[in-house]
Design brief:
The chain has about 280 residues and is an alpha+beta fold. The strands form two sheets. Strands 4, 5, 6, 7, 8 and 10 form a six-stranded mixed sheet that branches. Strands 2-1-3-9 form a four-stranded antiparallel sheet. A hairpin with a 3-residue loop joins β1 and β2. α7 packs across α9. The longest helix is centred in the last third of the chain and has 16 residues. It is globular and about 50 Å long.
């Protein structure tokens, strides 16, 4: 048994959902059985949860605590090639405040209540009890990783874990209101005999998001470029009429992360697309 699999089983026994990471700190790609969501199990925003396939095929949602799943033959190659172990914080009722530089660490020490901390390559992970939605770049060098995200396992850390503070929730609310604002009802002028803006038609929007997910999922190369172009296409069609919701955006991010994109890359691509379109 290799060291990463041994670590994963130990963490799983303590209730931490785990998954293998390949080089670059990204999950393994879709397994053949689940390519293009053939298994029907890719999570969505209404019913998040793991795919029914035991392979590590859907990023954070592949994280498992069942030793039989972790030891399954379909995971064997992934564990042999794994460069690290990751876990799904939200699945264990935890939130990780990822501090990516010295300035972010200094800010946390001045602002956040003490909790368990784990040293990272460039900063620290501050781990709190309690889950919330994951949001990237809530301030310079600070990401929040909880539900629908994964964090690299870097050891048990030091200190006593404390309850998730309101200040972290507030950071997420501020970020969502400034970077990805919630849609607001707007008046759309129409000519006599015409219906409402087609972008606000549920079927039209759902078809557009599904096509965007498929485009990302089917990418065989140039994934970064494909994700950016797809985000750009979605925003050019739906970005100005207020019809996009956080659930739609999260579906696109989840599809990109299943292809190996990091949460930070997703956020950067989305922000760059918005900037290009002047949104």
């Amino acid at each position: 048994m290799n060291k990463h699999l041994h670590t994963a089983l130990s963490l799983a026994a303590d209730g931490l959902p785990v998954l293998p990471l390949r080089k670059g700190k990204v999950p393994f790609g879709n397994c053949p059985a689940c390519a293009q969501n053939a298994c029907g199990g890719r999570p969505n925003m209404k019913t998040p949860g793991p795919c029914t396939c035991p392979a590590p095929c859907h990023g954070w949602a592949a994280a498992a605590t069942d030793p039989h799943t972790i030891n399954a033959q379909t995971w064997a190659t992934a564990w042999r090639e794994a460069a690290a172990v990751a876990y799904h914080p939200g699945g264990a009722g935890l939130t990780v405040v990822d501090l990516d530089n010295a300035a972010a660490v200094a800010w946390a020490r001045e602002t956040l209540p003490a909790t368990r901390t784990v040293a990272t390559t460039r900063g620290e992970h501050w781990i709190y009890q309690g889950a919330m939605r994951s949001v990237n770049a809530v301030r310079d060098g600070v990401d929040i990783k909880s539900t629908m995200a994964y964090a690299r396992w870097l050891g048990p850390g030091a200190g006593t874990m404390t309850a998730l503070p309101a200040v972290v929730h507030a950071l997420a609310v501020k970020e969502l209101s400034t970077v990805r604002p919630a849609p607001q009802a707007i008046a759309v002028p129409t000519r006599t005999g015409e219906g409402p803006c087609r972008h606000r038609t549920p079927a039209y929007l759902e078809r557009g998001i599904a096509m965007a997910e498929q485009r990302i999922t089917e990418a065989r190369s140039a994934v970064h470029a494909t994700v950016y172009r797809t985000f750009l296409a979605v925003l050019s069609t739906h970005g100005r009429c207020g019809c996009l919701t956080e659930a739609h955006i999260a579906r696109l991010f989840t599809a990109a992360q299943a292809k190996g994109e990091s949460p930070r890359h997703c956020t950067d691509a989305w922000t760059n697309a918005r900037t290009t379109l002047g949104l």
